[in-house]
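## Example pair
The file below holds two records. Each record gives the amino-acid sequence first, followed by its structure token line.
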Amino acid sequence: MYKNFITVFAFILMNSAFAFAQNTPVVAPNLETILSEARKQSESYREAFRNLLAEETKTFEEYDKNGNVDEQTTVKSNFLVYQSGRDAKVTTELRNIIEVDGKPVPNSQKRSSEFLSELEKTTTLEKELRKIQSEGAKYDKTIEAFDLTLNQATVLDPKIRPYFDFKLIGTENYKGNEVYVIGYHQTKKSPYNRVNEKMSSEGETGFNFEINIPGALKNNEKFLRGKLWINAETFQLWREEQELTVQTPEPVILLSSFSEYQSSDYGLLVPKTISITIYELKKQKGDGRFVPVKDSTVNFDYSKFRQTNVEVKILDDV
């Protein structure tokens, strides 16, 4: 089974046509104002989303050829937004795994303390981050995904926006909140959207995917498209849906994802559920078209977030 990797670093359900439920149109700011204000909120989110703790449940599902769940794995962890002592600007996701498929992990608290001691011995920021990722993903199946909680609406980054077209679709009521619904799609090849390519540097803004693609399509362009639900009052993000597609005569879905946020006690919306689905592309007999078939899914579900009592970081001896 091919394991897929997804990273939004600094970072993932639509068909070819988007359909949106809309309320009666209201007067809204222009599109540029909405995008700029939402970008400011996403930057504030990343800064505020440090040293928050929650219980995380990852559920992996693999599907058989008929689209039924063939295998399921559940991994529960204590989830912490961790700030590196080697670079105060770098945060990552730290997981202390406590349960797998309903069975407690022996000595999980002891392991957590030992792991922090091991981190202290790493010699570079890159090694520190890789060790953290490896520890948190050791029970993962088919999909490994990193830093999805730490970054939101990455397409709004000023370096990335020129590769996308944005459209204000309208407004709707989202769980009792008036939101602007923004559609976006990639229009040209971007150095910030890498598929099966080596990352140029740690900490650079963008998307990084390692995903299985049929040989006949490996050289075709891979583009992103999606939707944002932006609070009309605060410009904070309530939801994002996104697809990675490979360009054939009709775009074909390789991966779909959505992120849904919830209220918190800290003046920001925090993750509630993140879901990623990987598709296997099957070539049809006759016309030779590729069609996506659901291969595997991982869902990340979070409890209410709370702050840690102390700041967790590893400091260099210097």
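Second record, same layout:
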Amino acid sequence: MIFDILCAVGGAALVLKGADLLTDGSVALARRFSIPEMVIGLTVVAFGTSLPEFVVSLLSSLNGAADMGIGNVVGSNIFNTLMIVGVTAAISPIAVQKSTISKDIPFSLLASVVLIALALDGVFSVSGSRNLLDRGDGIVLLGFFVVFMAYTFAIARPAQKQEETGPADPTAAVETMAGWKITLFILLGLAGLIGGGELFVHGATGIARGLGVSEAVIGLTLVAGGTSLPELATSIIAARKGQSGMAIGNVIGSNLFNIFWILGACSCIAPLPVQDITPVDFGMLLFSGLIFWFFARTQHRILRWEGICLIALYIAYLCLIFAPS
């Protein structure tokens, strides 16, 4: 148990340092090529911070622990939307762009709806059907992932065209980081995030199993929170450095990567039966996205009190999970 605790603490420290390096490197990359911070958050940062979820879900599916793999993704997305956005907004209110409200968040909500429709076969199909993500479902999810990536690169083009015409304000030029340093920061940041996330998950899972907690609950809570530490650290640091677009893009991009890429790829490799992940969990996945969208639409900002509300909602969800049946 002591070793597991040390792993969890050491992993958390690595994640924090990795998030700092990745944020600095990604911001420099965005400035160097005049790519919007939102696009960097949706792609480079989101992919990097989603790697722990991918590793855990893939290994879980290959080892026959599908509940932990699916629970990891569902729990991570709930954690991302409620805790990461909540904590980040509670520390520093987050500005949300109009395009994010009208396009990116709705696309994330669509991902949740698609996952629910594909996973709960027993609810939406003929009686007797088994709740399962099979290879056909995986291909559908990967198809949506291709659409998401095409959209993301399409919204980057206006910024590239603006770069060709030159900046409107000559005084707005910023000092750029050397290319080798950007690469080094991003690679070291990703290594810290992935290695630290894996170390934390190993320690947290060992502690949970020692206390007799089920795999589904481990996946929805401890593993989900552990693999989401990179997103949490990266979003908080990005918001504190004034990069709110990257903070929001990181959350939305990670949620989309988790559903479309991770579950899509894993279910193509090995079908994933949905057993102890309940409709309540899927319902919270969708509701968390809706409340996030509602708060973002009010003033195009997530305010501190709204962030606190999101945190409180996540705590209520945890109480529901751990409440005696």
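Notes on the second record: The chain has twelve helices and four strands. Residues 159-174 have pLDDT under 50 and may be disordered.
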